[in-house]
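Here is an idea for our session: we take a single protein and study its fold together. To get us started, please write out a protein record for me. Once you have written the record down, we can walk along the chain together.
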Amino acid sequence: MKAFKIISLILTIYFSINYCQAQISEGGLPKSLAYKLPDDFAVLNLKPPNVDSLIKVDESNDSKGFGYRFGITIPVNYSINNSGTWYDLPENNGRIWRLKIKCKDALAMGVYYNDFFIPPDCKLFVYNENKTQILGAYTYANNHESRLFANELVYDESIILEYYQPYDNTVVPNINISGIGYAYRGVSNNSNKGFGSSGSCEVNVNCSEGSYYVDKKSGVARISVKIGSDLAWCTGSLINNTNNDCTPYFLTADHCTYSSGNYATAQDFNQWIFYFNYQSATCSNPSAQPTANSITGCSLVSFGLMNGGSDFELLRLNTAIPPSYNLYLLGWDRSGSISSYGRCIHHPAGDIKKISYYGTPLQTDTWSIPDFTCATNAHWRVQWAQTTNGWGVTEGGSSGSPIFDNYGRIIGTLTGGSATCSNPSGYSLYGKFSYHWQSNNTSAYQRLQPWLDPANTSTADYGISMAAHIPAASYTNTPTIIYQNQSVQFNDNSTNYPTSWYWLFGDGGSSTAQNPSHVYLNSGSYTVSLKATTGCGNDTFTKIIHVNSDAGIDSEILDKLVSIYPNPVLNSFEIKYPSGFKQGAYFQIIDNIGKIVRQDILFGTVMEIDISSLSKGIYSVKIFSESNVCLKKLCKL
């Protein structure tokens, strides 16, 4: 099994060299709605699976603490080339392609693509039959280097795909469907229920028990896990690193990547779906399915095996997280200290986000079931406590969820246990974060430390709000009075520690340096913008600068009016110039090889210039005023 896991990791790294946007959509409505087109397009009916036989297998696996299987993928071979119906919109407004796929008694359906490419300016929507749930538009921005993709669940037994292509667009799309997800438990398509199948004892995260976790709860997500043909629910969390650079690391359990004797492959990871903010807005269960923010795709970073290790998985999401999601990168404590009280936030049975509380000190234990035994004493044993709004426990689907200490820091990830709503006094076992840190193996790919604290400088991290770490872009430029053919220095003054910069100078020039210089060859007004970026987001600051014409040296005008004294000079000298030039005047000191060693704006009519730090020699002093330039020689003793 270890060899299989390592091979899977290698494949994952290969398929995830290039990170790009995943399930982040543009919005809007399908064209068929605007044109009120009839539903006269191709319909494909799938044979539903034998749900009874699937549930029999689930009953056995659920008792072992594996991921909570909620569905399977039905293999198909549908594409935009061999299925569906094309329709030409009137007045050369483009074309649409539509396909309906039905599978009787499905609680929800998903689409898994083995070749996915949307050309620029084209759009793909996915929606249910009565059009109450519309996903998309998926666009060119959703293309991934692996050409793999998956849609989040549509809560119906039928699903419609609609692709729009502008009239003059001839780029060929690839919409090849290799599997249709069929959900048979762990979801609800009943609008009067709107939430999942967790036990009645569970407590919604926005009850009073979660008041301390107002920001932290947004770091926990439900995962739609794909392992071959199996689909399962697990839980995991975004996690911070000591660089505070918003790298989208995500922590869950190793056993969430295992099903039916196989581990998830690199291709499977690219089709995992992460549901953030899937929760009730209040303490009560909602009357309709809550809306979530989702991202598709991840890559495997490191792991601790459930058989012989501490059962963790560190992933990296395929895409930067949109600031609009308003998420939190959770902190951690790797010291191994025993926590006396704390909480767990999780998605039991794939349900909306719940919270459970423990009020007695954690104990050290070892996870062991037939065929799978974790490392000795690598787990925390937790006893749950009754609270104001219930007696929250963990269930299938909670696997991989974080357990927090009394400071709200992650100290473990859920493997399994005996606690249920009918047996709330049972226990849950969490792989110790301190063991995940560096005890599974000496390899970086089986430890957390190389990724979360590369310099190994910290024992704890309190997490960060992503919104609070979006940079505020700003810059200054020197000089502020600019002439053509003059070097202008731009200085980044952005806050919140940006990690990359992109400058547009307004004349076609650009730079990715933090503090670039630029020369304007022509006079005029230019819009200069700086885009400052961190992993948390980006911000752009723009202002207009004016470049004046350089009329050349006019010794007859300025030479008689401007003087420098003393000359030769030892430490400092004065520039005297007429008051009529003071609004636009500045100077440069240039050495004998043409390098500008000092430049500044002239203030008043007399300005003292300190040059004590300059070497001995002959310098040029160039004074600029409006369109006139004066040149003086200066001897430094």
Remarks:
- The CA atoms of residues 7 and 265 lie 9 Å apart.
